[in-house]
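Cross-posting from the modeling subforum.

Setting up a comparison between two proteins and wanted a second pair of eyes on the formatting. Protein 1 (sequence, then C-alpha cells):
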Amino acid sequence: MVKIGNIQLPAFPLLLAPMEDVSDPPFRAVCKGGGADLMYTEFISSEGLIRHAIKSRQKLDIFDAERPVGIQIFGGDEDSLSMAAQIVETVQPDLLDINFGCPVKKVACKGAGAGVLKDLPLMVRLTEAVVKSTNLPVTVKTRLGWDEATKNIEEVAERLQDIGIKALSIHGRTRTQMYKGEADWTLIGRVKNNPRIRMPIFGNGDIDSPEKALEYKNRYGVDGIMIGRAAIGYPWIFREIKHYLQTGERLSAPTLEERIAVCKQHLQQSLVWKGPITGILEMRRHYSNYLKGLPYIKEYRNKLVSLSTAEEIEAVLDEIAERYAGFEFEQTAIVLQNYHEKCPV
C-alpha cells in the first residue's frame, strides 16, 4: 500500500494528472470508471479563490464517487496561498496539491507554477505557508528544474519533505522544454532512491502504454505513475496498465460500443456540470481519441467538433456506431497530444 498522510492507496497507484480545462468532474468521472486511483482537479488560482472568481470557485466542485481526490492550487504569494488553502479545506478534499510545474508564460512568468523553480527559498516559503494553513495532507507537483542548468529536483524533494509535504509528483522535463522532446525520468529515479526520501514519489511524463508503465516502474522504482495527456479521450489507459502490471498480458482494446457509450456519458455529464454551451465546446478536445483507430473518420470528427447540440452529436455518434459495427480496434500506444497552452503539468 502507498500512503499519503492518512490516505491509503493501492500498491503502485495510478494518478490522474491535473490538467487545466480538462480535469473537470465529467472527465474525472470517466477516468475513475477507467481505473484511476487518485484524482486531481484542474489547477486553481489562489488569487482567483480569494477574489471569489466564479471559474475558480467552480473548480472546487468534488464528489464522493471520485474520492480520493486532491484539489490543486497555484500562486506566488505566501498570504494568498495560505488563504486559498483555508478555502480549499472547507470543501473537504482528501488532499491539497501545490502546482510548481505549469510552464505557460502567463503563469510561470508571473512567479507562479514552474516560475517558482527559479527561486528555491521562495518555493520553500510558499509550501511551508500552505502546510501551516491546513490540516489536509499537502503534496506538490513540479518539474526537474527551470532549465538544463538548474535541475535542482533532488534538493527540492529533500527541502519540501523537511517542511512537511506528504508526496511529490515530478514531471520529467524542465520548464524551458515545455512538452518538447522525451521526458527524462533519470532524476525522478534518483529522487526516489535517495535514502533521505521517505514520502511517495510519483513519476509523470510520456506514459502512453502499459509496456512503458511497467518498464519505468521497474527501471526507476517510483511509487506510482501520474498520467495526463494519454487519458484524454482514452480513460481505459488506467485499467490497461493495471491489468498488464498484474498479468503481463494486454487487455483487449475497448470496443466501439464501449467507446461510444463512455463518450456519450462524458458528454452528458459535461452538459450538466458546465451547461449547454461550454459543455459542448470543451468536449471537442476528446472526440479524436475516443474514436482513434477508426478508418476514414475525419468527416465524422469534423462534424462532431462543429455541432452545437447534444442531440446532433449523439446522432452522429449513433451513425458511427452503426457504420462501424463489429469493427475490432488494434491495441496501440496512444499518441500524446500537446495541451501545453492549457497547462497540464
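Protein 2 (same layout):
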Amino acid sequence: MQYSADFALQNNMTLKNNIQKEIFAKMKDKFGYVNIMETPKIEKVVVSVGVGSFKDKKKIELVLDRLTKITGQKPVLRGAKKSIASFKTRQGDPVGVQVVLRGSRMQGFLGKLLNIGFPRTKDFRGIQRTVVDNMGNVTLGIKEHTIFPETSDEEIKDVFGLAVTMVVSSKTKEETFGFLEAINFPFRKDRSPSFEA
C-alpha cells in the first residue's frame, strides 16, 4: 500500500480517538459523564518568553530562533500596550515573545516536554498541584530552555526561561486534575515545597 498524507492523518485520528476513549473510561464514573464528548481535552498550548529586560536586539532574535526550533512554529513578538516611565518602557517596545500551538504541533510539543524535557531537568521530582488555576488551566514555569533537545548545546549565557500554559476544556478545577491524572501527568506525590521545571 502506498503511504500517503491521508493515511497518516487517518492513523493519527484513530490514535486520538483511542486515547479519548481511555480518558473517558477513567473519568466517567467519577464525574458522571454520559457522552464521550464531555471528556476534557487540551484546546491549545501557549508558550511565552518575557524579553522586556533584554536591551540587546540580538538576544531577542536568539529567543525567536530558539523558540521556533523548540515549537516548530514562528513566534510572534509582543509590544508594550502603553508607555511606563518607571520601567523605561515606551508603547510598542518589545516585551514578550509568544507562540500559540494547536493540533499536531501542540501534541508534538507536549510529548517532547513530558517525555524528554522533564526527565532532562536537574533534580526533577514532579510538578506541584498548584500549577492548576481556578479556571482549570495549567501554567508551568521552565527555568532553562535547554531541557529541549533542539537547544541542549546552548552556552550558559544564552539560557532563558519560558512559561507554558495549557488551556483545558474542563468546566472545573477538579475535572482538570482528573484529566491530567488520566493522562499520567507527572504530579509530585509528596508535600515538599513548590517546584518549577
